């Protein structure tokens, strides 16, 4: 999937992945896509809730090995 910015939050625990994603999204224009790569086991649930609460679109949430990859479209 195409994206505009990639955010590496590997080895960071909650709430840091969400806080860093929030900051990155705030710097992006509407409609742009952020790719997030995380290793926190709570990340899938956390990003689902974060996107639902903020109105950003969680386009893809997938697992590759011990990494979680999310594509989020800025509202």
List strands and helices in order, with pairings.
Blueprint: E1 5-9, H1 16-26, E2 33-38, H2 43-54, E3 57-64, E4 67-73
Parallel strand pairs: 1-2
Antiparallel strand pairs: 2-4, 3-4
Shape: globular
Total number of beta strands: 4
Strand count, sense and barrel status of the largest sheet are:
4 strands, mixed
Through-space gap between termini:
18 Å
In summary, what is this structure?
The chain contains two helices and four strands, in the order βαβαββ. β1 (5-9), α1 (16-26) and β2 (33-38) form a beta-alpha-beta unit. It is of the alpha+beta class.
Tell me what you see in this structure:
The longest helix is centred in the middle third of the chain and has 12 residues, at 43-54. By secondary structure, this protein is an alpha+beta fold. It has one domain (5-73): TusA-like domain (Translation Initiation Factor IF3), CATH 3.30.110. It is built from two helices and four strands, in the order E-H-E-H-E-E. Strands 1-2-4-3 form a four-stranded mixed sheet, covered by helices on one side. The model has no long low-confidence stretch (mean pLDDT 98).
Name the features.
2 helices, 4 strands, alpha+beta, Translation Initiation Factor IF3, 35% strand, globular, 75 residues, 4-stranded mixed beta sheet
């Amino acid at each position: 999937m195409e994206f505009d910015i990639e955010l590496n939050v590997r080895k960071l625990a909650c709430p840091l992945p969400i806080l860093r994603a929030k900051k990155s999204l705030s710097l992006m224009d509407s409609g742009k896509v952020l790719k997030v790569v995380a290793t926190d086991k709570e990340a899938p649930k956390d990003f689902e809730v974060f996107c639902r609460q903020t109105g950003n679109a969680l386009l893809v949430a997938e697992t590759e090995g011990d990494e979680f990859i999310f594509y989020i479209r800025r509202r």
